[in-house]
Amino acid sequence: MSPLIRQHRYALGVTLRRLLSQPFSSIANILVITLALAIPLLGAAALMSLRPVANHLTADPEMTVFMQVSATPAETGAVADRIRRDHASEIQALRVISRDRALSELKANPAYAQALAVLPDNPLPDAIVVTLEGEDLAQRSAKLAALWKTWAKVDMVQVDSAWVQRLEAILRFARASLLFLALVVAVAVLAAVFNTVRMQALSQREEIGVARLVGATESFVRRPFLYLGAISCGVAALAAIGLVAVVLDPLNAALADLARSYGTEFALRLPQWEWLAAFVVGVALLGALSARWSVTRNTRF
């Protein structure tokens, strides 16, 4: 066994003995970090669970191109073909609604049947309904509307973008809020680990001094504290994942009735295991970084 591996084994053993020698303090510290980590993790679970729903919703926004009343079916078809040809990569679907079909559908509605019956002619124009796909729908739909309005026989373009703008704004706000919350939690974790390592270093002041007198390197002195920060934060991250998994059950039960009222199924789920593994590793590295900072500042004696 190489000397480096023996040193790491020794440091890990020292760290575990220190944790077990003060079980209440260790558990309390891990619990504080767990609760802090659970909040952004729950937010990430909600945001990632909403992403498929948002993608489904943002695939539905429609633009309606109203032709002039004098436009013939051939001219309407020409405009529809031009949209398909020029913007094939930007649209998901396109359908043409003739003026006769639109009138018959309105007459089928009792609320409009009597009013339409007294009209001598069909006042409705042909319409082309375009379903967009992709991202940045609000900006793209405005540009497309401005372009299509300039085409011959096009009277107006109705853009269904107000709710798209609201949805995109909500998602941007949620992402920004989650990022800010993650930064706040990272600072809280840094502070918790920094203070814990500081107290450990001060309580072992004499032991560290003796180790230096007999030739211990700074890496040897710091290594147990780095393991302390990494293990505490790694365990807290795993505990936070378990806590959020437990909390999601009652939340999903409450969400089920709300989702059914909108005719859909929705449930909050934890992110994929790859994301969770990166979360645990990242938090452990954050703890080690905070421990290194703390032990460097508080063992200068």
UniProtKB/TrEMBL annotation:
Any one Gene Ontology BP term: cell division
Cellular component per GO, a single term: plasma membrane
UniProt keyword annotations, A-Z: Cell cycle, Cell division, Cell inner membrane, Cell membrane, Membrane, Transmembrane, Transmembrane helix
InterPro entries cross-referenced by the UniProt entry: ABC3_permease_C (IPR003838), FtsX (IPR004513), FtsX_ECD (IPR040690)
Domain FtsX extracellular: 62-157
Transmembrane stretches, start-end: 27-48, 176-197, 225-248, 275-295
Pfam family, one: FtsX_ECD
Domain ABC3 transporter permease C-terminal: 180-289
Subcellular location, record wording: Cell inner membrane; Cell membrane
The keyword Secreted belongs to this UniProt entry's keyword annotation: no
Predominant localisation class: membrane
Membrane topology: Multi-pass membrane protein
Function: Part of the ABC transporter FtsEX involved in cellular division.
Record protein name field: Cell division protein FtsX
Organism: Pigmentiphaga kullae
Taxonomy of the source species: Bacteria, Pseudomonadati, Pseudomonadota, Betaproteobacteria, Burkholderiales
